[in-house]
């Protein structure tokens, strides 16, 4: 009778021990992976433009746009009387509200993905006041 109990009991104990070791190894590896990922993640920086940078962008009307009259953000036409923002560098134009919404989040042109560098405010104001 004892030999039957030992024949059934010992394999169960052995398999349980192997299973517990397997679970411990999985836990250890997963913890190391999570710690490695936490160390390698860079802090998220703000991608969009600030309020002051948005104010520096040129504002025109729809009739003054150079490259087309379709807003790439809302996909609607920019009418002649609509306020529009023209992106410096690539000269793409968008509705003023659409451009502000997009550029606060992204900081790049919705059409060509060019990085937007607003013109410095002091240069724009100094060129107007400089004697010729």
TrEMBL record:
UniProt similarity note: Belongs to the RING-type zinc finger family. ATL subfamily.
Keyword set, alphabetical order: Membrane, Metal-binding, Transmembrane, Transmembrane helix, Zinc, Zinc-finger
Protein's name in the database: RING-type domain-containing protein
A GO cellular component annotation in the UniProt record: membrane
A Pfam entry, by short name: zf-RING_2
Family annotation (InterPro entries): Znf_RING, Znf_RING-CH, Znf_RING/FYVE/PHD
Glycoprotein listed as a keyword: no
Compartment(s): Membrane
Positions of the RING-type domain: 71-113
Transmembrane segments: 6-30
Domain of life (superkingdom): Eukaryota
SUPFAM superfamilies in alphabetical order: RING/U-box
